[in-house]
Amino acid sequence: MKTKVEYGFPKGFLWGGATAANQIEGACLEDGKGMSTSDYAAYKDPYATGEVNNFTFNVTSKELEEYRANEEKYKFPKRWGIDFYHRYAEDIALFAEMGFKVFRFSISWVRIFPTGLETEPNEAGFAFYDKVIAELKKYHIEPLITLSHYEMPIVLSEKYNGWQSRELIDCFVRFAAACFKRYKNDVKYWITFNEMNMNLNSLYTGAGSFPDKVDHLEQAAYQASHYQFVASSLAVKAGKEIMPDAKIGCMINRIESYAKTCRPEDQLQALKADQINLFYPEVQARGEYPSYMSRYFKEKNIMLETEPEDFQIIRDYTVDFIAFSYYMTHVTEDRPDANELAGKLDSPIKNPYLKLTEWGWPIDPIGLRITLNKMYDRYKKPLFLVENGLGARDKVEADGSIHDDYRIDYIREHVKQMKEAVTDGVDLMGYTTWGCIDLISCGTSEMTKRYGFIYVDQDDEGNGTLNRSRKDSFYWYKKVIETNGEEL
Ligand code: BG6
Hints:
Helix content is 41%, strand content 13%. By secondary structure, the protein is α/β, with parallel strands linked by helices. The chain has a single domain (14-482), classed as Glycosidases (TIM Barrel), CATH 3.20.20. The strands form 2 sheets. An 8-stranded parallel barrel has the order 1-2-3-4-5-6-7-8, surrounded by 5 helices. Strands 9-10 form a two-stranded antiparallel ribbon. Helix 4 runs parallel beside helix 6 (123-138) and helix 15 runs parallel beside helix 16 (405-424). The longest helix has 26 residues, at 217-242. It starts with 13 loop residues before the first strand and ends in a 6-residue tail after the last helix. The relative contact order is 0.14. Residues 20, 150, 194-195, 253, 325, 387, 391, 434, 441-444, 449 line the site of 6-O-phosphono-beta-D-glucopyranose. 6-O-phosphono-beta-D-glucopyranose is lined by residues 20, 150, 194-195, 253, 325, 387, 391, 434, 441-444, 449. This is Glycoside hydrolase family 1. The active site is at 387 (nucleophile).
């Protein structure tokens, strides 16, 4: 037992920022890149429809046909990103100026295997990541690489309906192993899949499956997850063989569920909602399907196609750490649709004690402390908070300055609670804020929803100079890192 209470963040705490290839790179058709699922997330003007969270991340096979036939009618912002592909050196220099210890980014699957079916990787695709990693090393910034962050070869979606097919396991493991071999001497921290539990929200974004081509959405989400579990474990196996010292993690979108009242029925529902959210690390960190899910599947008539060896693979190759994103908490109550709501981003039940972001996401820093403690108590594995942040509109003043004190307040309050949790004894490896540089929103494909410390001059339609500038939060976060979280 650790008897001494240590206040604050440990030495070597990994401070930094996080991004994903499809939201920053652009250069859609360069150097042999193939088309990915995210290249077909068309922007739908939320101001025209009056729907702030106008999610663009579920694409049906009919929509894909329509987009292909009428490319000029639509805008696909994830194809242009923020041009990180050409400006990575400038961006990394800014991260270094803030003192980043770690930078989370993803490798675009289609840059390495353009259709997903090739047996040899695309050298020109790797050449780009060679440069990014070399640049990070120059500043002693650790790369933290996500292998699959909400994109995959569109060819695999069309041929197999994405992760509905077992065939995808080999395709993914081939991609993962190629990345491990290439970067075995340079990259220690890896995440196999981003927020696998979001398959329940968007089958297309999470699993590359067209929702109109499955009979039962929930069944399809869990089937895809099963194949991803096996693929992730096989990637851990390959990773450990190639780089025995590497640390490979899983990742979920963590949404803690509070009961609406102290009525036992509501409390029970909160427990169930939490079990559904934690099902993913349960499998990937503990190595087995929890029995509560067997009952859930049975009662929902969900039947998964599995092979007997899958469960041994899952048992043998668990992850080293649990990465997660944290943006909000939910409230739940005893109602017929409570289980379905547990897997979703939007909740109709509001928490009267919490303020909302402009996009309606409840802000709950104390919930972060609760969740850190809960997850650590449960898994006793290191945790890594790899996404957290405030999506907000920023105003550029006449002199070019951007006073984003709302973002500073948001992150400050979360860091304070993280510090409390670390003092409670939680083993937290690091903190990478989401969208440390403004990027294209995953959910809505817009630019207006900004998370960055670094402003990027570009609007929702892709107009702008793409010039980078420092917001007030840039200087604030620099201080936080410099003082290892002491000066907030
Ligand atoms: C996470 C994703 O769920 O949320 C990111 O991993 C995403 O890719 C982030 O950008 C914020 O969501 P949004 O929709 O505001 O971009």
